[in-house]
Amino acid sequence: MYIDLVRIGKNYCVGKHKSRNAISNLSLSISENEIVTVLGQSGCGKSTLLKIIAGIEKPDAGQAYFRGQPITGIAMERGYIYQDYSLFPWLTVRQNIGFGLRNKNIPKHQKKVLIEEYLEKFGLKGAEQLYPRQLSGGMKQRTAIARSFCLKPDLLLLDEPFSALDMMNRHKLQDELLEILKGEKITYVMVTHDIEEAIYLSDRIIVMTPSPGAIQAIIPVSMPRPRTRTSSEFLTMREEIADMFYSKSI
Ligand SMILES: Nc1ncnc2c1ncn2[C@@H]1O[C@H](COP(=O)(O)OP(=O)(O)OP(=O)(O)O)[C@@H](O)[C@H]1O
């Protein structure tokens, strides 16, 4: 498979001789070009799971593989977007988007074309010269995602990218993202708390349980896109996942 997690375990040290078991015996495979969301209560290990795939955290047990090779650290081909956007406050939108390209060995002209492409695709034309403090939450998030797309990663890992946005902005960005993903060869793995968001975007939903983090269910979503949030199929799935989610996690 494209991503393989095999019997992953992860403990964090939380003081002298004390550790917290964040993830236990978790196995999961993800296909190339799949859109996967990871859903679960706060603290169930979603971010840890993403960081292990990104190579930011190392598992204590088991092994994570990307294209059949063990993941041993971070790599440009696996982009990771933090919850807090991590924009550089002293750089403009254009400079933030182009930041990762500095060390890429491609002609200057091509870098400019890429930056233009993603300014356009993420609706940031006209805001190129603004600094992060001058942006709305949605614009910050667009900038952070555009910066990652610009690097043309094979895999993009996003930790609750839309959580700070109001509903209207979140829906808008979800639609834009799906449109952009249609034209890219990219595998997309995203953490969310929002069941509706997971159903709207995903090919598959991974539901996690806490203490320690483990997989409760893997739910394929076969509804054709664009999906209607008010369709009976959508609402039924939302209810089923909510039942599963709350019955186990409380
Ligand atoms: N660096 C760390 N040091 C110690 N404990 C940690 C660390 N990172 C995470 N943990 C613990 O591991 C568990 C899983 O954390 P993680 O951030 O992966 O959960 P999450 O599901 O992403 O949570 P949230 O939805 O609130 O972001 C939690 O109990 C958390 O306190």
From TrEMBL:
Pfam families: ABC_tran. It comes from Paenibacillus cellulosilyticus. The keyword Cell wall biogenesis/degradation does not apply. GO terms for molecular function: ATP binding; ATP hydrolysis activity. Signal peptide: none annotated. The lineage of its organism: Bacteria, Bacillati, Bacillota, Bacilli, Bacillales. Keywords: ATP-binding, Nucleotide-binding, Transport. The keyword Magnesium does not apply. This is NitT/TauT family transport system ATP-binding protein.
